[in-house]
């Protein structure tokens, strides 16, 4: 299911792992076992270090969760925020198409963190905050779909809310099935997805 | 995030919960906290009964997982197996369209169990077996997509493997966003999804 871990990255002058490597392994464990079932002890064991060595880099398990979710959310917020701000310079259809393509690229480049984000259930304050940021994104995306329908660029016989859910449901599904080591790179998947989706959404 | 639980069903003559009610609550907990993080003790606490009362109905936590995954897999296998067996009576396109529609209906009717199935990672023998059954389904669906492309009913400028992933990725995404108490029933979602997907997949 998971490829072999890459060799651990060494911190500058300090033997062992740097924060990025600890975080990478934590996210992999969270995705494999579930966040609630993973302890700092599990993480230390996976890395072959002591628990204090982990606490040298992070203050808590929730700290690791926040770092990972922020990684995914900051990238997605930049993509969606950019499309909202560009409202003057391009039509809603072009902006939506750009958001879909760039979302695929973010998902592929940050797949473990986005996978974790998509599984968040709101069991902790960090998760509740992440769900609020996801809702902000979903609302902006739904508004962009409505604007594209309103400007006559998308079919109007399917409710815009369902279009938004199905379109980004298809994008988000990549977190579960995309394999970086497989046949198709991010550009190939982005091409296929945007062609299928926007041909399906074309006004007829 | 989750609606209030329905009133517990009473077993015949025995006070407390029957197996179906125990299973329903177990699946809800597995989806909320993750399977690995949920104990029989958590389940007993959630139901307000003792652990022995749980063991009256099931032998283990893994037993509950197997029952839930079999529920989802048996339904999906019936849908996909039926389409494969119908090969003589209808074209691949019509069978694929039927499978997509019926998959949406199964997902809506068995949403908690399908959600659990889609999150399985293979950490236990029961999960490994479920992943094997899922792979069988995925292979049959991919073959059906290839057959529909080969008969000239679907566009052939997107690799059939990607079409299959994107199409069923969109279907599976319902597990995450569909709300039974929302505006759209299973038929409305199935209509929207099949129209969007098959218009997008039409040969041009």
Automatic annotation (TrEMBL), chains A, B:
Cross-referenced PROSITE patterns: HTH_TETR_1 (PS01081), HTH_TETR_2 (PS50977)
What does the UniProt keyword field contain?
A: DNA-binding, Transcription, Transcription regulation
Q: Which residues form the HTH tetR-type domain?
A: 16-76
Q: Name one Pfam family in it.
A: TetR_N
Instruction: Extract the SUPFAM superfamilies matched here.
Output: Homeodomain-like, Tetracyclin repressor-like, C-terminal domain
Q: Which domain of life is it from?
A: Bacteria
Which InterPro entries does the record match to this protein?
DNA-bd_HTH_TetR-type_CS, Homeodomain-like_sf, HTH-type_TetR-like_transc_reg, HTH_TetR, KstR2_TetR_C, Tet_transcr_reg_TetR-rel_C_sf
Q: Which residues bind DNA?
A: 39-58
Q: What is this protein called?
A: TetR/AcrR family transcriptional regulator
Q: Which organism is it from?
A: Cryptosporangium japonicum
């Amino acid at each position: 299911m998971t490829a072999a871990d890459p060799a651990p990255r060494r911190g500058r002058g300090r033997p062992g792992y740097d924060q990025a490597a600890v975080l990478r392994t934590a996210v992999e464990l969270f995705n494999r076992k579930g966040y609630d079932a993973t302890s700092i002890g599990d993480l230390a064991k996976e890395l072959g270090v002591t628990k204090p060595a982990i606490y040298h880099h992070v203050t808590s398990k929730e700290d690791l969760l926040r770092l990972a979710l922020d990684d995914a959310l900051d990238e997605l917020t930049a993509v969606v925020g950019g499309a909202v701000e560009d409202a003057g310079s391009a039509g809603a259809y072009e902006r939506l198409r750009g958001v879909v393509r760039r979302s695929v690229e973010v998902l592929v480049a940050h797949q473990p963190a986005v996978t974790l984000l998509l599984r968040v259930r709101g069991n902790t304050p960090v998760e509740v905050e992440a769900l609020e940021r996801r809702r902000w994104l979903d609302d902006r995306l739904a508004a962009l779909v409505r604007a594209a329908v309103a400007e006559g660029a998308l079919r109007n016989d399917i409710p815009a809310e369902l279009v938004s859910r199905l379109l980004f449901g298809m994008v988000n599904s990549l977190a579960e099935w995309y394999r970086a080591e497989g046949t198709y790179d991010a550009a190939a998947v982005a091409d296929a997805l945007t062609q299928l989706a926007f041909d399906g959404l074309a006004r007829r």
